[in-house]
Amino acid sequence: MLDRIARSQTSAHREVVRAQVLLDAADGVGNKTIADARGVSPVTVRSWRESFEAEGLANWGKVAPGRGRKPTISDETVAQVVELSKTPPKGKTHWSCRDMARKVGISPASVQRIWSELGIKPHRVDTFKVSNDPRFSEKVVDVVGLYLDPPEQAVVLCMDEKSQIQALDRTQPSLPMVPGRAGTMTHDYKRNGTTTLFAALDVLSGKVIGQCLPKHRHEEFLKFLKTIDREVPKHLQVHLILDNYATHKHPAVKRWLESHRRFHLHFTPTSASWLNQVERWFRDLTEQNLRRGIFGSVPQLIASIEDYLEASNEDPRPYVWTATAESILAKVARARATLDRVVNQN
Fold first, then answer.
1. 66 is a domain residue
2. Which domain holds residue 94?
3. Would the pLDDT of 298 be above 80?
4. 100 shares its domain with 168
5. Residue 333 domain-assigned?
């Protein structure tokens, strides 16, 4: 066991050194030599050896009573910080470390340490919205069923539009990254027009069919459907997961679908874009290409998006869906119950 602790990368440093000291002692090395080699005092070496001879590994890792720094903040003060954190101070939306420190009479660092240890984050707010779609359960079961058990002789595509992508150019040239300094770009920018990206993610392969079009109307949606029709082999059925945007249900779209029976549309619930896997791909596109991109024109923007599409399809990585419909419905039910309880309290 001492050998394992002495080589450990996760045990406390003091325990690793102590194990190394005892192994050295077992090899017959003198206390002074061990102390110099391991960076401790001869008194510490002697104490560890005597303790090991008397107790072995019985109390290994335990701190003797009375050892260590005494707490300087009382339990009552910690409880006060926790209780105050539940309600924001007057005129403000949340507590800051300095505001809380002044209120309870401790340092801002102490407040931060208490919040960190207890997982309290007054400065953060997570966004959410519970869908009120009357067919929520039915749609969740339908979409998740396609993810977990896709039909044979078919392709399942998650489709959506990323509209109003701006071609942003900076007002001054950017500086490249060099050792010791990050790359730079101006905080302000020039707008050089927009484009809309239509994308369909194959949930099994991770490949994406994408097309940039100038607008976001049913005409463009029809054009993209025809692109999908050309890209997907004719012998495969096409199951398309998409949201409830009006252009997806336009009469012209419905007429086209009637003459292309291999297309099957599956709509996600309203306010549930998280159920569409292509939204994850859009996030990656934004973080890896658009956010720090510099585009002098819309054609430059489109060329950059197409380069990203090509690189993504050269090494596609499908997103692994693990949540069952039952677990999603149970989670949403809990969220609705919590919301109802809060509304009733107010």
1. no
2. 75-118
3. yes
4. no
5. no
Angular region, 303: left φ>0, alpha ψ -120 to 50, beta rest: alpha
My answer on whether 293 and 219 are in the same domain is yes
Q: How confident is the model at residue 61 (pLDDT cuts 50, 70, 90)?
A: low
**70 versus 174: which is more confidently predicted?**
174
Cβ partners under 8 Å of residue 327, min gap 6 = none
Number of domains in the chain: 3
Tell me the pLDDT band of 260, cut-offs 50, 70 and 90: very high
The reply to whether 102 and 34 lie within a common domain is no
Reduced to 3 states (helix: H, G, I; strand: E, B; else coil), residue 188 is coil
Asked whether residue 345 is assigned to any structural domain, the reply reads no
- Can you give the pTM of this predicted structure? 0.69
| 41 Cβ contact partners less than 8 Å away, ≥ 6 residues apart | 35
Q: In a 3-state reduction of DSSP, which class is residue 12?
A: coil
Q: How far apart are CA 41 and CA 45, in angstroms?
A: 7
* Domain match, 108 and 148 both: no
Q: First CA to last CA across the chain, in angstroms?
A: 59
Q: How far apart are CA 158 and CA 100, in angstroms?
A: 47
Query: CA–CA separation, 1 vs 16, rounded Å?
Result: 11
Burial of 275 (0-12, 13-18, 19+ CB in 10 A): buried
Residues 35 and 89 in one domain: no
pLDDT score recorded for residue 64: 59
Tell me whether residue 165 is exposed, middle or buried, using C-beta atoms within 10 angstroms of its C-beta: 0 to 12, 13 to 18, 19 or more: buried
- 320 vs 1, which has greater pLDDT? 320
**Percent over 90 (pLDDT), the chain:** 56
Is residue 10 domain-resident? yes
Is the pLDDT score of 163 beyond 80? yes
Specify whether the CB–CB gap between 294 and 170 falls below 8 A: yes
Shared domain for 42 and 14, answered yes or no, is yes
Q: Where are the beta strands (DSSP E) in 24-153?
A: none
